[in-house]
Description:
Elements: H1 3-12, E1 22-23, E2 36-40, E3 46-53, H2 80-92, E4 98-102, H3 109-125, E5 132-136, H4 143-152, E6 155-157, H5 165-171, H6 177-194, E7 203-209, H7 216-230, E8 234-239, H8 256-270, H9 276-279, H10 295-301, E9 309-310, H11 316-320, H12 327-339, H13 345-350, H14 355-358, E10 362-363, H15 369-375
Parallel strand pairs: 3-4, 4-5, 5-6, 6-7, 7-8, 9-10
Antiparallel strand pairs: 1-2, 2-3
Helix pairs in contact: 2-3, 3-4, 4-6, 7-8
This protein binds iron/sulfur cluster.
Iron/sulfur cluster binds at residues 58, 60, 62, 65, 67-68, 104-105.
Amino acid sequence: MRTTHKLDLLVNAAQFDTCGYSSPRQKDTNSPLKYIYRAALPEGGSVCLFKVLLTNVCVNDCAYCVNQCGRDIPRSTFQPDELAGTFMELHQRRLAQGLFLSSGIGVNPNQTMEAMIKTVQILRSRHEYKGYVHLKILPGAKFDCVEEACRVANRVSLNMEAPTAHHMVKLSHKKDLFNDIVERMRWVKQLMVKDNKLVPSGQTTQFVVGAADEDDRDILRTTDALYHEIGLRRAYFSAFQPVSRSRLEGHPPTPLIREHRLYQVDWLLRVYGFPLREVELALDETDNLPLKKDPKLLIAQRQPWLFPVDVNTAGRDDLLRVPGIGPVSTDRIIRTRRDSRIDSLTQMQKMGVVTKRAAKYIWFQGMLEYEKQLAFLPEAEEEANTVNSLAVVLL
Ligand code: SF4
C-alpha cells in the first residue's frame, strides 16, 4: 500500500482517540494538513499534532471501535522507521509540532507496543527529535513495555472506555478492566513516583460515553478515583457513535451535549477542586447530568445556604462556587479588593464575571437597588446547544 493511502487510513482511524478539543482536520484536501489535528494547550495557544495509528489491525472486539476484529475494512500497518520518517517530514515542514501515536493490537499487545516504542526511539536517537510525544499504552502490555513507553514519551495514556468492570463486559469479551488497564495505570504511577522526570505531561485516559449504558454517576466516581489514586492528569470523554456492522450498530448515539456536561463537571472536580459529593448534587434522579442545565448553576441552587457571598470578604473557594465566577475572575477579585472595595456589578463585569448569572449569588455593601432587583430576576439557564463554548481544551 502506498504511504499516502496508508496515511489516509491510519490517520482517519486515529480520530477516535481523544487528546484534547481538536479542531477538525482539513479532510477534503490534497494538502498534508489533512493529517494534522490542532489541539489547544492548557496555558493558551495550540499545537499541531500528527495523530496516527501504527496499525488498524486488531485482535480485540471492542464493540464501539471501528478497528474491532471481524469488521471487513481495509487494514494496514506502518513499519517503525517508515512512520518515524513520515512524522519527521511533517515536522521539518513545520506542519506537525508533536506526535500522538496509538494503535490497534496487531498480534498481541507486547509486539505492537514494541513497534510503537521503536518508532519513538528512532525519532529520539536517529532523528534527534526532542519534541512532544503522546504514546498510547495498549491494554495488557507487559511491564517492560510500559516502563520503556514512560521513558520515551512526554505523555502516556491507557483508555478505560468503561467506568466499571461490569460495564466493560458489555463492550469487550477480551479486555479485563482491572488487570489489563487499571493495573498498567498503577505501574505508570509507580514509575513516575520512582523517577519524577518520567512522563512530564502525566498520564490520561478516555471514556466512551453511553456505549455501555453506564450513567454519569458511574463515570464521575471512577474519574474522581483515578485523579486521587492513580494521579491521573485528566480524563477525556467521547460521545459514543455507533459503528456500522458492529454489535452496537443499533445502539442509539450519545448526544454531544452529554459529553459537554461531563467536561464541565470534570472541570469542577479537577480545576475548581470541588469534592465529588458536591459535584454529584448536579445529578438528576436517573444519576445523570441534566442536559439542559448548567451543572455549576444546579450545584449552587441546591446549596442555597452558601449564598449570597460577600465579594469583598469571601474566601477563594466561596467565590469559585458562584455561578458566573471562574478561577480567573476569582483571582482578579482577590487582587482588586486588596487595594479598593468592589462596589458595582460593572466593575465585576470588567473582571470577567458573568454578572447576569452571578448577581443572585453575590453581595457587596452598597449594592444598588436595581442590582438587587436584577438578582431576583429568573436565572439565565444555559441552552442545550452550547457545545462549542467548551472551555476544556487541554492537550
Ligand atoms: S483494542 Fe483498541 S483498536 Fe482494538 S478494538 Fe479495542 S479499542 Fe479498537
